[in-house]
């Protein structure tokens, strides 16, 4: 039972705030001999598995590190191109870590803003009169709750599907947003929140709900 | 407790079937545009869910809800998507959508393809038998009532 992350989007769809509380990433490390039996390809500046799913390594998983050194996009930590490096049999045996790609902050920004538009489309396609936008989106792995304030700010929380008490949490986040951001004279409205002490504000609010900590939180 | 409407799309985004029972508000755009918008929205939601998901997903996106309605989504391995809008009282319609696909849709789908050499995949299912069977099935659902609560 956990809260995975918190996002805030302003009324024009721009990204204001993001906080990851507990992110579970499934990763698999294996030692390989030459030749590599997974087919890799470059996608979005990352090396991903396109064929050869086995042993916890799934299609779509990105190559995260080679021999313990984190890779940098399509290059290894030393600056060599990964695909070329893996074709060279003298580099084997080596151990490679595959896992779900960790999203950079740019990559988190896009879906958050995309959600803003989907929210509006959801209200347009409504078969009933007077519907708001999407308040809750459910998949088998997570639930995404969205609370739209009267001023148009959307507070979005990603949680475990079995988590309860989210309405209360969203109201509390709104309260803390107005305390820390709106009452701050140096904060301009609708700008990203990068104030000092703001990560601690999210921790403070999650501390108000101790039962909602992820399993790895101290 | 009621069902508002139902869409069936194929993998290319063309709407194969649309049924309406209790819809109160039209979208204000033509039906063609509404189908495209619905398909586009669901395509975006799906790709968005696969990016955001903390773990690899088995089934993917299931439902979303607003303050007034709930949208249930079911996708088959061949790309056929079934979407049902109901009111908020309905819990999880995944099994029902699966039933619609396997018995009503596939049962008649196969008959329709096999027995009608003129019909083309990807065009609207204009079989009357299909529409009436689907209509009867929806009306027989335990949470369907002709008047919304």
TrEMBL record, chain A:
<dbReference type="GO" id="GO:0030008">
    <property type="term" value="C:TRAPP complex"/>
</dbReference>
<keyword id="KW-0256">Endoplasmic reticulum</keyword>
<dbReference type="InterPro" id="IPR011012">
    <property type="entry name" value="Longin-like_dom_sf"/>
</dbReference>
<keyword id="KW-0333">Golgi apparatus</keyword>
<dbReference type="Pfam" id="PF04099">
    <property type="entry name" value="Sybindin"/>
</dbReference>
<comment type="similarity">
    <text>Belongs to the TRAPP small subunits family. TRAPPC4 subfamily.</text>
</comment>
<dbReference type="GO" id="GO:0005794">
    <property type="term" value="C:Golgi apparatus"/>
</dbReference>
<keyword id="KW-0813">Transport</keyword>
<comment type="function">
    <text>Core component of the TRAPP complexes which has a function of guanine nucleotide exchange factor activity for Rab1 GTPase. Plays a role in vesicular transport from endoplasmic reticulum to Golgi and autophagy. May play a role in dendrite postsynaptic membrane trafficking.</text>
</comment>
<comment type="subunit">
    <text>Part of the multisubunit transport protein particle (TRAPP) complex.</text>
</comment>
<comment type="subunit">
    <text>Component of the multisubunit TRAPP (transport protein particle) complex, which includes at least TRAPPC2, TRAPPC2L, TRAPPC3, TRAPPC3L, TRAPPC4, TRAPPC5, TRAPPC8, TRAPPC9, TRAPPC10, TRAPPC11 and TRAPPC12. Interacts with SDC2.</text>
</comment>
<protein>
    <recommendedName>
        <fullName>Trafficking protein particle complex subunit</fullName>
    </recommendedName>
</protein>
<keyword id="KW-0931">ER-Golgi transport</keyword>
<dbReference type="InterPro" id="IPR007233">
    <property type="entry name" value="TRAPPC"/>
</dbReference>
<dbReference type="GO" id="GO:0005783">
    <property type="term" value="C:endoplasmic reticulum"/>
</dbReference>
<dbReference type="GO" id="GO:0006888">
    <property type="term" value="P:endoplasmic reticulum to Golgi vesicle-mediated transport"/>
</dbReference>
Automatic annotation (TrEMBL), chain B:
<keyword id="KW-0256">Endoplasmic reticulum</keyword>
<comment type="function">
    <text>May play a role in vesicular transport from endoplasmic reticulum to Golgi.</text>
</comment>
<dbReference type="InterPro" id="IPR007233">
    <property type="entry name" value="TRAPPC"/>
</dbReference>
<comment type="similarity">
    <text>Belongs to the TRAPP small subunits family. BET5 subfamily.</text>
</comment>
<keyword id="KW-0813">Transport</keyword>
<dbReference type="Pfam" id="PF04099">
    <property type="entry name" value="Sybindin"/>
</dbReference>
<dbReference type="InterPro" id="IPR011012">
    <property type="entry name" value="Longin-like_dom_sf"/>
</dbReference>
<comment type="subunit">
    <text>Part of the multisubunit transport protein particle (TRAPP) complex. The heterodimer TRAPPC6B-TRAPPC3 interacts with TRAPPC1 likely providing a core for TRAPP complex formation.</text>
</comment>
<keyword id="KW-0333">Golgi apparatus</keyword>
<dbReference type="GO" id="GO:0005783">
    <property type="term" value="C:endoplasmic reticulum"/>
</dbReference>
<dbReference type="GO" id="GO:0006888">
    <property type="term" value="P:endoplasmic reticulum to Golgi vesicle-mediated transport"/>
</dbReference>
<dbReference type="GO" id="GO:0030008">
    <property type="term" value="C:TRAPP complex"/>
</dbReference>
<keyword id="KW-0931">ER-Golgi transport</keyword>
<protein>
    <recommendedName>
        <fullName>Trafficking protein particle complex subunit</fullName>
    </recommendedName>
</protein>
<dbReference type="GO" id="GO:0005794">
    <property type="term" value="C:Golgi apparatus"/>
</dbReference>
